[in-house]
Design brief:
Layout lengths: L2 H20 L4 H8 L3 H8 L7 H11 L3 H8 L14 E3 L6 E4 L8 E8 L4 E4 L7 E9 L2 E5 L2 E5 L4 E3 L6 E4 L6 E9 L2
Antiparallel strand pairs: 1-2, 2-3, 3-10, 4-9, 5-8, 5-10, 6-7, 6-9
């Protein structure tokens, strides 16, 4: 495993604990708000277990944060420039997808994330992960099947989709090659 990705896993674990403590929540309260078991949250906070993308989305949604914001807070790099070698990258232990926070950590109401989704991978995300956000998905390479509630969108290289109101969704790479896409998040309205 890439040591940079591994050390980010540890910082994410610490950040989840810190976000919970800042709010004065017990493990049980975070479990209730996120739908993630108290035992799993305890393991994640102690860095005994790495959260999957789905669990991380549920936890960040419970905090009222995007997954991008939670990851960025775990590796704070202030400033207007975000060099690739310093961009926080996180690998989902379940699907193997790699999520890189590309945009600088500034006060802009926009976040840019690059995702590498391996062939055959599915990443479900709960609607809570997208509350109070508008977002676009832009496929840079490969084909992405995006399931938004009951609606299915197949995006090829160069296609861009604006997401509708928050619904449980699935990011799927049904192909046999890597899919690389960007998620552009606009916070607020």
């Amino acid at each position: 495993m890439d040591t940079k990705v591994h050390s980010l896993d540890q910082r994410i674990s610490e950040r989840i604990r810190l976000e919970r403590e800042i709010r004065g929540w017990s493990l049980s309260e975070l479990a209730e708000r996120s739908g993630v078991s108290r035992t799993m949250i305890h393991k994640i906070e102690r860095a005994v277990s790495s959260p999957t993308a789905t669990l991380l989305a549920r936890l960040s949604g419970a905090f009222g944060l995007t997954m991008s914001t939670l990851i960025a807070r775990a590796e704070i790099q202030e400033g207007r420039m975000s060099r690739r070698e310093h961009q926080p990258a996180w690998r989902d232990p379940q699907s193997g997808y790699l999520r890189r926070h590309v945009s600088p950590n500034t006060e802009l109401p926009l976040e840019l994330v690059e995702v590498e989704l391996p062939a055959g991978a599915d990443v479900p995300m709960p609607a809570a992960a997208y509350a109070m956000l508008r977002q676009l998905i832009w496929v840079k390479e490969g084909t992405l099947t995006f399931i938004e509630g009951e609606e299915e969108h197949v995006l090829a290289t160069g296609d861009c989709l604006e997401l509708g109101p928050p619904k449980d969704c699935i990011f799927r790479n049904a192909g046999d090659t890597l899919c690389v896409y960007a998620v552009i998040l606009m916070k607020g309205h």
